[in-house]
Amino acid sequence: MPTGPELAVQVTDVRALRALSHPLRSRLLGELRLNGPATASRLARAVGESSGSTSYHLRQLAAYGFVEEAEGQGTARERWWRARHRMTSWRTADLAGQEGGAEVQEEMARLQIDQQARVLDAWHEQNAELTPEWTAAASLNDYGLRLTPGQARELTDELHAVLQRWLTDHPADAAPTEDAAQVCVLLDVVPLREWPT
What we know:
Helices cover 50% and strands 11% of the residues. The termini are far apart. It is mainly alpha-helical.
């Protein structure tokens, strides 16, 4: 019986992160993480691309271990793909010394910021359609703290541990139920020289 994706992968090779920094590959991996296994054709419809293009980019993601063929699904004509991990992380220190490390981390940061903006825009547009229970459950927050780098790392690790527990117990690609919806938790711990006004 197939198991679900592993919780996380820690990327240490700049080439793997560069493969993931392609916007379409990032979207395909996101679709598989959110909605579970799919074919290149289904993913093509979801992201508005050709199945030839999605098939190529899925093979690139597979080459770096981000996706794999879904066991027990598909036929000789139709391959099903699944995400291998629920989340991807990397440490600046692991990539900084590698050629192109700074550039690819900048590309990934831009992709993440753009995706977070799309998520918040979608929530804002859909907010009026939510039930009162969901409206009350939604939460937008920002907390201003004054921390040392070590304290910021400790806070981040603690928040990640909580979210990883919830992700393990309530993955986004779990079977839908009548009262549950996909929920996006955006978590950013960012040092600022000046607070934007």
